[in-house]
Specification:
One of its GO terms (biological process) is mRNA export from nucleus. By secondary structure, the protein is mainly beta. It has three helices and 33 strands.
């Protein structure tokens, strides 16, 4: 068959090459469980570097495996379509959170474009749009944009990105860790910025709410975690896990932080170690070496779960002893999300589920995910 060069479209060809490369390098930055009245989780929402927010059904994954729907490329792999896909942001989506409960539940997201967007979760799950359709078939009900800073001669800075979110449903607030070294408090009802937390010397990686003390805690590239009073926006304490007392410098950034259920214990990921702090005493209790830089950490039943730049999910006790390590196929993981029925972790181009006989990795495109099944203790 001869090729008719008269129908050649150079621009279309270039776009197809760029899209193919984007899919090959797609990164999943966050994977979380969706709220459900069912005690067993069924839906996972993932945020990725192509600006998309996708949801997947665990039961569909399991049923596909039970029916023997095996990929011809690899006998251990399945091809699963997402239940829905949203065009969330222009640029990477770094975090997703759920706000509220019941029919008023909102799916919130933030990303590289400096926006915080929120959709009614009910509208997404009940949408008439075809499954795995990509677009704006559900419009956001919240659309917040970080402020720009004025420079010389009235010039405006670029809009700073949002790297992480924390929510306070009781106060109707959304907290965002931004790339301009500030944290912002937004009012959900008015869509206005209520407060700006300024004091870090570099951009923020992470943020958590300490509701019992009406505080937030932020972790920054400047090597410190700061505790802020939400009533005055003042910094009340600075935590420096790896401060060099001789040179007054910090050797590593704070890449991740987490609070336990009592909100008395804080764990910080800093370089290739975790530091455990007793907040009432303002004291570092233990330092826990990790096999690689930590990228996310959570507490679970007086234990610490950590993932990062190594192909393992590590479990430590409060003294820093290694309880177990679950080895994974991908070499890097960005986030971990906990449900009483299992643990979910996200990787470049993938997310994983443990204790649900489901272990997944590698997107083949923005519409499909390949899944392998394993039983992990």
């Amino acid at each position: 068959m001869c090729f008719d060069s008269r129908n050649w479209n150079e621009e279309s060809y270039r776009d197809s090459i760029l899209k193919a490369r984007e899919l090959q390098t797609r990164t999943v930055f966050r994977a979380i469980w969706a709220p459900s009245s069912n005690p067993n989780p069924d839906t996972i929402v993932v945020a990725s570097s192509d600006g998309l927010i996708s949801s997947y059904s665990v039961s569909s994954c399991i049923s596909k495996h039970a029916s023997g729907f095996i990929s011809s490329r690899n006998h251990n792999m399945l091809t699963i379509k997402p239940d829905s896909v949203l065009r969330g942001h222009d640029g990477s989506v770094y975090d997703v959170k759920f706000y509220g409960d019941g029919e008023d539940t909102l799916l919130l997201s933030c990303g590289d474009d400096g926006r915080i967007r929120g959709w009614k979760w009910k509208d997404i799950t009940l949408s008439d749009a075809p499954n795995y359709s990509i677009g704006n078939h559900v419009q956001p009900v919240i659309d917040l944009v970080n402020p720009q800073h004025k420079g010389p001669w009235g010039a405006l800075s670029p809009i700073p990105e949002n790297n992480a979110l924390a929510i306070d449903v009781k106060q109707g607030s959304i907290y965002a860790a931004a790339g301009d070294s500030c944290a912002y408090c937004w009012d959900v009802e008015t869509g206005k910025a209520k407060m700006i937390f300024s004091g870090h010397r570099d951009y923020l990686h992470c943020i958590v709410l300490r509701s019992s003390a009406n505080q937030i805690i932020t972790g920054s590239e400047d090597g410190t975690a700061r505790i802020w009073d939400c009533r005055s926006a003042r910094c009340v304490h600075v935590i420096a896990p790896e401060k060099d007392l001789k040179y007054e410098k910090f050797s590593s950034c704070i890449s991740c932080i987490a609070l336990d259920a009592s909100e008395n214990w804080l764990v910080c990921g800093c370089g290739s170690s975790l530091s455990l702090w007793n907040l009432p005493a303002s004291e570092c209790i233990s330092k826990i070496p990790t096999s690689a830089p930590a990228l996310d950490v959570i507490f679970y039943d007086n234990q610490i779960l950590e993932v990062g730049a190594a192909p393992v999910l590590s479990r430590f006790d409060m003294k820093g002893n290694v309880l177990s390590q679950i080895h994974c196929a991908p070499q890097l993981s960005f986030s971990i999300s906990l449900h009483h029925s299992g643990v979910c972790s996200s990787y470049p181009s993938s997310f994983c589920l443990w204790n649900l006989i489901l272990f997944s990795f590698s997107f083949s495109s923005c519409k499909f995910i390949r899944i392998s099944v394993a039983i992990c203790s």
